Amino acid sequence: MMAASKPVEPHSGSGFPRWQLALLVGTPIVLGVGAVYLWKRNKTKNTPGKSNGERTTPEGSANPVQGQEGARCEQEDMSPLDRAQGAKNKGNKYFKAGKYEQAIHCYTEAIGLCPRENQTDLSTFYQNRAAAYEQQMKWTEVVQDCTQAVVINPRYIKALFRRAKALERLDNKKECLEDVTAVCILEAFQNQQSMLLADKVLKLLGKEKAKDQYKNRDPLMPSPQFIKSYFSSFTDDIISQPLQKGEKKDEDKDNEGEAAEVTESSGYLKAKQYMEEENYDKIISECTKEVESEGRYTAEALLLRATFYLLIGNATGAQPDLDRVINMEDANVKLRANALIKRGSMYMQQQQPMMSTQDFNMAAEIDTRNADVYHHRGQLKILLDQVEEAVGDFDECILLRPDSALAQAQKCFALYRQAYTGNSQSQVQTAMDGFEDITRRFPKCAEGYALYAQALTDQQQFGKADEMYNKCIDLEPDNATTYVHKGLLQLQWKQDLDLGLDLISKAIEIDNKCDFAYETMGTIEVQRGNLEKAIDMFNKAINLAKSEMEMAHLYSLCDAAYAQTEVARKYGLKPPTL
């Protein structure tokens, strides 16, 4: 886990994006719009006959009706439909010549001539006129004509997609998303252009909603399991260490020299006591007392307060405190280095990788033998796809702390991902052997088993992966995330939907603030076609989001599910389900 409360993109915490983990299902499925576009795009190959280009041309032959160039479209010896087709054909010729106004005139004539019972032809004429309006960037007219075409033919892909593009131009993202969702389903997710538009609109909608909602949300303290897991990723962190007798004044000790109840005079020491008692909600206020009184532990109080601001997702509150600690040149160097790690992780969460890298590099300069710096910078490098540099940082961490099982496991996982994506089977096997060695040397490291389980799942060694997750659960029975991963494994391995959902439900029972569990449950419910339940799960995850970016991602998933409910209601369209 990086020092910020969540990684850069919504991840599971162990190397894979959450949407990718949620797709570890061993049957051909379509999740529908949202979260899955990147996956679908990677799976789709451009094959002859597949439509991946712009839909800009009108339908029908571009050859004009026989006769002179300026002749009237109507011919007295032709039926009304033939005359309409002739007008359309002439309009197509004008369209290809870039004479859009003349093309519109001919398409309008075709619409007027077409008998109302010839619905397919009539919808085509409206769609063709919309194509000409599109070239003139008359977006309202495009929407109007496409709507006429769709009313006649509700599954008219060209008209739906053209209307979606026009609605995007008119900044009507909600209706745009509904149209492009319908297109994606009708095309069985085989057209990259429509998937890209859907992905783009979902991200924009998610960002817009999160920007407003995140500012006004009520801060929420994570579960004790999450907080303890967070602090366990640091070994050189002064503020997370238990209370020391030396931190108390003589009058705060009893006659035998043992730790007594901390007096109200030291807000920081009181906060540390609350931390030991897992009474986390009172820590920020006690640290504030220490800071305002300018007590002897002001630097520590600032850092501890900033850390809990980060944990509740209040980066705006955390940054001034981190800045102050970093600029305290007379403060303990380990406090300053820890503040730099946390600010660097916060910057990465805010998608500012250059500033993040600067903070990690500065931390390494001021505290060269701080293993935490290299450990967390190694995770940063993995997120930036700089695997070789990440391995170098993990090696430095291991050199400083040879007993750091976590760093060794994450190094092995980085090497595995590099080998796996590079299709090097020999290097994959070397990494798998490395995991065997790590789990043998560090049998109490749950993260080692978890990362090994993910690699085994990649290699379709499902039975052994299940064994590794069981060992994780034996070591950390309160780790909800492990139950989610184990549940996903059951879906991929045995296609056992009930067992998978039971395990994810168990995760929520263990930690009702596990946003990863709600998100994964929502994704599975989308696959099952239970869109209302999926939306409910996504909304629960949204309320637990610890960063604006994570909230935006979750809103995208929720909007995608909602769009599918609207498409199902309007057009009777549903993607395949489990």
UniProtKB/TrEMBL annotation:
GO biological process: protein import into mitochondrial matrix; protein insertion into mitochondrial inner membrane
Pfam family, one: TPR_1
Single Gene Ontology MF annotation: protein transmembrane transporter activity
SUPFAM superfamilies with a match to the protein in the record: Protein prenylyltransferase, TPR-like
Region Disordered: start-end pairs: 43-87, 242-264
InterPro entries membership: TPR-like_helical_dom_sf, TPR_rpt
Gene3D superfamilies: Tetratricopeptide repeat domain
Family per record: Belongs to the Tom70 family.
Record carries keyword Transmembrane helix: yes
Protein's recorded name: Mitochondrial import receptor subunit TOM70
Subcellular localization, as worded in the UniProt entry: Mitochondrion outer membrane
Ranges: TPR repeats: 84-117, 371-404, 446-479, 515-548
Keywords from the UniProt entry: Acetylation, Isopeptide bond, Membrane, Methylation, Mitochondrion, Mitochondrion outer membrane, Phosphoprotein, Repeat, TPR repeat, Transmembrane, Transmembrane helix, Ubl conjugation
GO CC annotations on file: mitochondrial outer membrane
Membrane topology summary: Single-pass membrane protein
Species for this entry: Salmo trutta
Bilayer-crossing regions: 21-39
